[in-house]
Design brief:
It is built from 18 helices and 16 strands. The chain has 445 residues and is an alpha/beta fold. A five-stranded mixed beta sheet has the order 2-1-3-10-4, sandwiched between helices. A five-stranded mixed beta sheet has the order 7-6-8-5-9. A two-stranded antiparallel sheet has the order 11-12. The chain is globular and about 65 Å long. The N and C termini lie far apart (90 Å).
C-alpha cells in the first residue's frame, strides 16, 4: 500500500509539473490563426525532417513579418523546424550571405526582392558565381509606397502623375539646375521597378528625366532629413515613418499602382531544398500559418508589438500598427485613409491566396527586366525569362504544405497563372502573352 501511494504521488507530481509547464509556455497557435496570445514554441518530438534548422535572412520591413511571427509565435517550431533569423544590413549583404550559405557562416535563404533569386541563380548578381535558388512562396502583397520630401509638396505628387503633377519634373530641373532624385533600396529589383513603373505611367522617363539612387532602407529617414533624395520607394514602415515624422508625405502606395500585386518572396538555396524536401514543406507550413494569423484583424496589435521590439525592427509600435491596418496619411495634403484592403495583405485578397508562388507573377519581374534591359546577356528574350522562371519558381511544395496544414482545397491554386492583371493606368499584363504587355508600354529602353 505504501509503495502504491509513493507511485501515485510521483505520477501526480509529474502531472502537476506538466500542467505548470504548459501554463507557463502558453498554448500553441491554433490552426485557424485566431489566437492572440504570444506562446512559446512547441516543438513536435519527431517530425521526421532531414534537418531541424535553417538560417534565413530578413530586412526589417513588413514583408518579413511572416518570418518573424513564425518564429515568435512558434509556427515553425510546431512543425519541427528551428528557423534562425538574421537581420541583414542591406540587400547586398543578404545576397553575399546566401552565396556563403549557412555552412560558410551565411544564410540558406530568406526574404527577397525579385528578380534577385532568379538572378542569383544565373550569377548575374554574384560576379558570375551561380547559386541556384528556389522561390517557395510570396511573403506579402502591397504594403509598399513612394514617399516624397517636404521640399516637393508643391508638386502634389500622387499615384497618377499625369493628373496631379503635369510638367513638374521639367519645372523642377529648370528651377534647381539638376534632376529630381528618386531612391530605392536595391537596383534592378522590386522597389526600383515600382518607382520606374510609377514615373513611366506618368509620362516621366526614369532614365532621362530623374536621377535614380540606391539607399539602404535604414538610411531613409536620414536621407530625407539631409535632402539626399526627393522621393523614396521602399516597404513600410519606412514610407509611413517619413510621413509620421513630418519629413515628407506619402505620394503613392503600390496598392494604388497594382492591387494585390506580387511583392517580396521567400526563396532558399536549391541545394538546401534538394537535401531537405520534408524540412522545406515544414518551413512552408509554418509560413502559411503565420500569414493566416497576420491577416486576422484582431492580431494586428500584437503583431505590431512583436515587430516593433528592439530585437526585430526597433520601430514605434503605433506606426507599425497603422501600417498593418492600412491606415495612411496620403498625398501632399496628408489625407487620412483607413482601408485594410489597401494595406499589406498576407493571406487573402480578391485575387485569391497571396502566399501562393504563381509563376505568372514571378515572371512579371523578369518581363520588367526585359523592359529596362536590366540584365543583358542573361535576360534578353521572353524565352530566356520563362526558362529561368520555370527553373527557379516551384509551386508543388507549397501545395503539399497547404494540404498538410489544412488549407481548404478551394484556397489551393491548381494552376500556375493568376490570369490577366490590370494596372491603375489601364495597362494589361496577360502572362499568356507577355509580348503584348511589353508592346503596350510607351516608355522603355
Amino acid at each position: 500500500m505504501t509503495l502504491f501511494r509513493r507511485r501515485l504521488s510521483a505520477v501526480s507530481g509529474s502531472l502537476a509539473s506538466l500542467m505548470l509547464l504548459t501554463a507557463c509556455l502558453g498554448n500553441p497557435p491554433d490552426r485557424t490563426g485566431t489566437g492572440s496570445s504570444l506562446s512559446a514554441p512547441v516543438v513536435r518530438a519527431d517530425a521526421g525532417l532531414e534537418t531541424k534548422s535553417i538560417s534565413l535572412g530578413f530586412v526589417p520591413i513588413l514583408e518579413a513579418a511572416p518570418l518573424v511571427v513564425g518564429v515568435e509565435k512558434g509556427f515553425f517550431a510546431r512543425h519541427g523546424l528551428d528557423v534562425k533569423l538574421s537581420k541583414q544590413s542591406s540587400w547586398s549583404a543578404a545576397r553575399d550571405n546566401v552565396v556563403l550559405g549557412s555552412a560558410g557562416g551565411g544564410i540558406d535563404g530568406g526574404q527577397w526582392q525579385l528578380p534577385m533569386p532568379q538572378m542569383i541563380s544565373e550569377g548575374a548578381l554574384t560576379n558570375g558565381k551561380k547559386v541556384p535558388m528556389v522561390i517557395l512562396a510570396m511573403l506579402m502583397s502591397q504594403g509598399n509606397g513612394i514617399a516624397a520630401a517636404n521640399g516637393v509638396r508643391d508638386g502634389n505628387l500622387s499615384a497618377d502623375l499625369k493628373a496631379s503633377s503635369p510638367g513638374f519634373f521639367t519645372t523642377f530641373q529648370k528651377k534647381e539646375g539638376r534632376r529630381f532624385r528618386a531612391a530605392y533600396t536595391f537596383p534592378k529589383a522590386n522597389q526600383d521597378i515600382w518607382i520606374r513603373y510609377w514615373l513611366a505611367a506618368g509620362g516621366v522617363n526614369p532614365d532621362r528625366d530623374v536621377e535614380l539612387l540606391t539607399v539602404p532602407a535604414p538610411e531613409t529617414l536620414q536621407g530625407m532629413k539631409t535632402g539626399t533624395m526627393e522621393a523614396f520607394s521602399t516597404g513600410d514602415p519606412w514610407p509611413s515613418r517619413i510621413s509620421n515624422d513630418k519629413l515628407g508625405y506619402l505620394a503613392a502606395t503600390t496598392a494604388q499602382i497594382w492591387k494585390a500585386h506580387p511583392e517580396e518572396y521567400l526563396a532558399v538555396r536549391k541545394d538546401w531544398v534538394d537535401a531537405n524536401p520534408k524540412a522545406a514543406v515544414a518551413l512552408l507550413k509554418g509560413l502559411i500559418e503565420a500569414q493566416r494569423w497576420l491577416d486576422q484583424p484582431d492580431n494586428k496589435t500584437e503583431a505590431a508589438k512583436i515587430l516593433g521590439s528592439r530585437k526585430w525592427y526597433n520601430v514605434p509600435v503605433p506606426v507599425l500598427e497603422k501600417s498593418l491596418r492600412g491606415e495612411y496619411a496620403l498625398g501632399s495634403k496628408d489625407q487620412v485613409v483607413k482601408d485594410p484592403r489597401m494595406g499589406p495583405l498576407y493571406w487573402s485578397s480578391d485575387r485569391g491566396v497571396i502566399s501562393y508562388p504563381y509563376k505568372s507573377l514571378t515572371l512579371w519581374f523578369l518581363v520588367e527586366s526585359l523592359r529596362w534591359k536590366f540584365y543583358p546577356g542573361v535576360v534578353d528574350s521572353l524565352a530566356q525569362a520563362q526558362a529561368i522562371n520555370d527553373r527557379v519558381t516551384r509551386e508543388d511544395l507549397w501545395r503539399q504544405a497547404a494540404k498538410e496544414v489544412g488549407v481548404p482545397s478551394k484556397d489551393i491554386p491548381t494552376g500556375s497563372s493568376r490570369g490577366r492583371e490590370v494596372f491603375f493606368d489601364g495597362v494589361v499584363y496577360d502572362p499568356a502573352d507577355p509580348q503584348a504587355y511589353l508592346n503596350s508600354l510607351k516608355i522603355k529602353r
